[in-house]
Amino acid sequence: MHMTDRILLVEDDARLAEMLSEYLGAAGFRVATAPLGATAMQRLASASYDAVVLDLMLPDMDGLDVCRQLRAKSSIPILMLTARGDATDRIVGLEIGADDYLPKPFEPRELLARLRAILRRRGSSASDDRPLCFGRLEIDRAARALHVDGSPRVITSYQFALLIALTENAGRVLSRETLMDLLKGEQLEAFDRSIDVHVSRIRAAIEDDPKRPRRIITVRGAGYVFAKVQN
User: Fold this and answer.
1) I need a surface site. Which of 99, 118, 162, 180 has the fewest CB within 10 A?
2) Which string of b and e fits 111-133 if b means at least 16 CB within 10 Å?
3) Are 23 and 108 in contact (CB under 8 A)?
């Protein structure tokens, strides 16, 4: 993480937004706030940010819609805040492109830790300039770009880091626990099978038929393996 990282905090609770802005500012971030989804989209279109902290419940639109619109055009890290207790909402958030989520109420210290973690994943995924090529699939780690047959595909920073972990260990079966360790071992996922959700999103981006994957294969009871060569 760079101490000049710019964060857009999308939160309609003015008191909470002010408190979090001060806390994150003291931690070295430059924080801009947006109380509405529409305001957030305007700011993201007119300025550059390194990550978005996005409340799920906004007065003008659902935070999931904001996440969906943003992810369609950008791979910027998104940390979703949700007061909803239903795990389905959290899974949907991950499926449409959020990198991580944090249920309310939360400690500002945990928000800071999760934010630093997704920014660290973004940085570590670009640490090697050499692209990874597997047939029609090309992964440019320096540019954090993913292409299939030359066509760009958009995935989240968490999913990009997960794909790198799988491809750098191509041909080797990796358990969910091993994958978490490879992703710095941070306990960022608060419900079981969340790795499965992210793998599903990666498959949707790179597989011809995500329901019959040929690149990322599930090994029942063991984990996942990235196939070096397709049959």
Assistant:
1) 180
2) bbebbbbbbbbbbebeeeeeebe
3) yes
Interatomic CA distance for residues 52 and 111, integer angstroms? 12
Alpha helices in 27-175 (DSSP H): 37-46, 63-71, 87-95, 108-124, 157-167
**pTM for this prediction:** 0.60
**Tens-digit pLDDT string for the chain (231 aa):** 444 689 999 999 999 999 999 999 999 999 999 999 999 999 998 888 989 999 988 999 988 899 988 888 887 889 999 876 566 767 777 777 788 888 888 999 999 998 988 887 766 544 455 678 888 899 887 777 899 998 999 888 888 889 988 988 888 898 888 887 777 644 444 444 678 889 999 999 999 999 999 999 999 888 999 987 654
Contact 43, 32 (CB under 8 A): yes
Encoded tokens for 120: 């660290």
Burial of 61 (0-12, 13-18, 19+ CB in 10 A): middle
